[in-house]
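Researcher: Re-running this chain for the archive, since the previous output was lost when a drive failed. Same request as before.
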Amino acid sequence: MSRRPIGFAAEAGPVLDEIATTAGGRDITRGFVDSLPLLPSQDRLLRGRGGGDYLLYEEILRDDQVATALQQRRRAVVSYEWEVAAGGPAAADLEAAEFLRETLKSIRWDAVTDRMLYGVFYGFAVAECLWARDGDRVVLEAVKVRKQRRFRFAPDGSLRLRTMQAPQGEVLPEKKFWAFSCGADNDDEPYGLGLAHWVYWPVFFKRNGVKFWLIFLEKFGAPTALGRYQPNATEPDKARLLEALRAIQTDAGIILPHGMEIELIEAARSGTVDYAALVDRMDASISKVIVGQTMTVDPGSSRAQAEVHLAVRQDIVKADADLVCESFNRGPAHWLTEWNFPAAAMPQVWRKVEVPADLKALAERDKTIVDMGFRPSLRYVQETYGGDWVEAQRPAAPGGAPQFAEAAQGGAVDGYVDQLEQASAEVLDGLGDRVRQLVAEADSVEQLRDRLLEVYGKMDPASLADLMQRALAAAELAGRFEASKNAG
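Model: Regenerated structure tokens:
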């Protein structure tokens, strides 16, 4: 029995229609929402504690730890340089890329990116593109990031603008608003799910902990006064005692009727470690949610741990940069190119989020590879270490001998030996004939000895030294050549 893959019709091939759509009541988690003007968010925390109003999450931004961590995350993205890559090598492709590059400069792309990154906190971001005409071209004069509270999504996923005249949302023109969402675990939620959802409770517990901490400090610094009155005290007596208790906080001295007592109830707790630990724990939770770790926001225990935590944050920074750039490339950048350069391949803007290489470690690694017998190319050196490099000339061996590294083949060694023989012939030319003549003419061994010393004494010492250096070089080349053959 043959099985047919799910999603393929019997005869006509793959099914092209969307099956798990959220329209028409097919989303069992929402029910029938097609009749609603606006689609409610599935964020239960936002609906339950904020009535669906993002003002709930705006209040979280007042927390110092949230503001610090979120600012660090945003500024880390915009600190990297951006570049525009042409879609192809054609002239139209390059012109479209240059046009987009100049556009991004004019709209202050770093500032736009910084504000759009708040979408990571709320779950989605919306910006309005202000188009204008410049001759026969459409230009982007500005990109204005708008508040999330002003927008909602319709059941069909389209964006709506809530106004006083249309609280249920106005239909917006196409190719006018740039929006993206993030954080949700599915594509059925156009609102996304922002970091605010996860830091809400840590901020809530922290604020309440600080409130009780301040109450404790107040009681510790100014203990509560307790007044005691006699059983037969009248109401005026009780009132005078209460006034005396109130005067304790402001007056240097007080008087009491005879028979009444006042004592101070001091804080029984011996420290503030419980409240401080709670605040620190909540701050650590906030840092983990927003920047993925704690040591780039709070003090760490070691440099090694801080470097590991920085690497974690680096991954988040790159993801944020790609999120904004990719959504802009699919939206305004695509529209601009489509209107002005319809024949050009689409240019794209990206952040150059690269971790700087440890050049010292790379140099040590490359030196090890060179010691193994390999040599890096000039192109590799330039791409790895940067700068303008030229290949250095190796110093020649004594007497103009070829370099040892080039003696990997037998032909180089043989040629060097031939050079040595020619040089020795020039130095020792005629020496053998002269010695034989002296032997024939000498009357005694002592006479031959003296005349040989005279002959050698007239020879050039520098020429002999040069000849000996060449001979030693030839011997070393021959040895290396034989060793390389044996190793092969």
